């Protein structure tokens, strides 16, 4: 059933549909804002669960006031409202429970949309959106929120397997180079592949799902990536050999900030899109610290740590010569009943002179604060881009998804940080923090600020 969207005088109507996760909502809402500034009518399709939280912690109504034609619509994510949506829930629930219900709901929204939707920008992980778009005759662009490098590795997995470089044999050297990902032959090692590649089983369901969604992304009318040519030019050229219409439109948060500041001035109040309550008290604490003296430590919106890992990290931070601002998200420490929360309270009490701990920080503001000299990160793609744009060097502790590839690129290609992959030892934490914040401070600060400068030049030119 094709709707009538013949030439009209109204602005084109774009529906933006993210995966229901914080890291995906963040960049896709910024893309939606940029399109609204350019005059498009915008529908942002959120899950009921995430929308409730967006409304609770942000001034969401202001989007429609600021951008006439911007509206939120909500659909189910396929899970009961009281599902905890924490830990490894997403890949476990996606194919069997979520996909079917989200597909039905998307179809319903599109069929009933007035004015009709002229183009869908779907999260590239939601491959079913392509089937619905084709059925209804609506053009679709896929947007991948993860890094281009990782997109390219995901795409290459069948070739790596065919070349016999996967599976990784349990006892072998994890530093072995993977030579079958074009453009990455000189630096990609076994340990830099996504973690599901560590399984002996090449039929692993998570691996198959990710490869399937990635290859499907290339069947859309175009593919958008949150990066800049300056950052990822060589890998973008590789991806373009498979799909000619690939657009690098990022870093989106910087693109949006540049446009809003140019129009309204530097002090303009930017929207936040957070699913947790932001603790702004850390900014007051940072205001009292000397320039580039604090390391910011945060591992994004999904990662969990064990009690032991958190304590190991904390000792490393405490023994280093640097003050720290640490984010410990509610329920992100895995332990027996209440044990995780207890350990956070204990660390908070013991760190008073050396650090500050919050549940959720205003991350962009923190990274741009003059007191911050380094970022201890899990290398989620948003965090990596936010650090690059702020000119802050990184210590990388990747956990899953695109993060293992990202940390390799940060340390080995861009040389703006150190990679602590596969280790969680207080002595190593201490050494890396001292390297980035004290002993090799100028070297890292210089490379990070040069990269930020190049990036800003490109943003000005777009
Ligand atoms: C996930 C994946 O892990 C990531 O690899 C993928 O690229 C996107 O989806 P997440 O793990 O949450 O995202 O990491 P990241 O991409 O870094 O996104 C986290 C976002 O939350 C960032 O935009 C960051 O600014 C924000 N954040 C994080 C806060 O605002 N406050 C915090 O305290 C922590």
UniProtKB/TrEMBL annotation:
InterPro entries: UDP_glucos_trans. Its EC number is 2.4.1.323. Keywords: Glycosyltransferase, Transferase. The keyword NAD does not apply. It holds the Pfam family UDPGT. It catalyses: 7-deoxyloganetate + UDP-alpha-D-glucose = 7-deoxyloganate + UDP + H(+). Belongs to the UDP-glycosyltransferase family. This is 7-deoxyloganetic acid glucosyltransferase. It comes from Gossypium mustelinum (Cotton).
């Amino acid at each position: 059933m094709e709707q009538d969207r013949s030439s009209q005088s109204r602005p084109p109507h774009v529906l933006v549909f993210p995966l229901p996760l914080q890291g995906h909502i963040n960049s896709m809402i910024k893309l939606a804002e940029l399109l609204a500034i350019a005059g498009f009518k915008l529908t942002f399709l959120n899950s009921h669960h995430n929308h409730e939280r967006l409304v609770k912690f942000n001034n969401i109504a202001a989007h429609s006031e600021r951008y006439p034609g911007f509206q939120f619509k909500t659909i189910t994510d396929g899970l009961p409202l009281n599902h905890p949506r924490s830990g490894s829930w997403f890949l476990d629930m996606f194919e069997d429970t979520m996909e079917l219900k989200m597909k039905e709901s998307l179809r319903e929204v599109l069929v009933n949309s007035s004015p009709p939707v002229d183009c869908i920008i779907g999260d590239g992980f939601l491959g079913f959106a392509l089937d619905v778009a084709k059925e209804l005759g609506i053009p679709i662009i896929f947007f991948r929120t993860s890094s281009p490098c990782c997109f390219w590795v995901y795409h290459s997995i069948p070739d790596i397997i065919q070349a016999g470089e996967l599976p990784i044999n349990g006892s072998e050297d994890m530093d072995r180079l993977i030579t079958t990902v074009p453009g990455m032959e000189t630096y990609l090692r076994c340990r830099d592949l996504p973690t599901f590649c560590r399984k002996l089983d090449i039929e692993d369901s998570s691996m198959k799902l990710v490869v399937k969604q990635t290859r499907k992304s290339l069947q859309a009318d175009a593919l958008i990536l949150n990066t800049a040519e300056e950052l990822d030019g060589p890998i973008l050229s590789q991806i373009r050999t498979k799909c000619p219409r690939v657009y690098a439109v990022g870093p989106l948060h910087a693109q949006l900030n540049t446009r809003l500041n140019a129009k309204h001035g530097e002090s303009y109040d930017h929207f936040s899109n957070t699913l947790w309550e932001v603790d702004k008290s850390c900014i007051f604490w940072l205001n009292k610290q000397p320039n580039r003296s604090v390391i910011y430590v945060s591992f994004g919106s999904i990662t969990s740590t064990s009690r032991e890992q958190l304590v190991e990290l904390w000792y490393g931070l405490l023994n280093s010569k640097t003050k720290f601002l640490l984010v410990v998200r509610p329920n992100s420490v895995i332990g027996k009943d209440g044990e995780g929360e207890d350990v956070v309270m204990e660390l908070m009490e013991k760190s008073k002179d050396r650090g500050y701990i919050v549940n959720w920080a205003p991350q962009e503001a923190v990274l741009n604060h003059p007191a911050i000299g380094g970022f201890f990160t899990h290398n989620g793609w948003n965090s990596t881009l936010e650090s690059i744009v702020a000119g802050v060097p990184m210590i990388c502790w990747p956990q899953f998804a695109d993060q293992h590839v990202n940390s390799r690129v940060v340390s080995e290609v861009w040389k703006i940080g150190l990679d602590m992959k596969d280790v969680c030892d207080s002595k190593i934490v201490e050494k890396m923090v001292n390297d980035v914040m004290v002993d090799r401070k100028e070297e890292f600060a210089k490379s990070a600020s040069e990269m930020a400068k190049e990036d800003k030049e490109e943003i000005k030119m777009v």
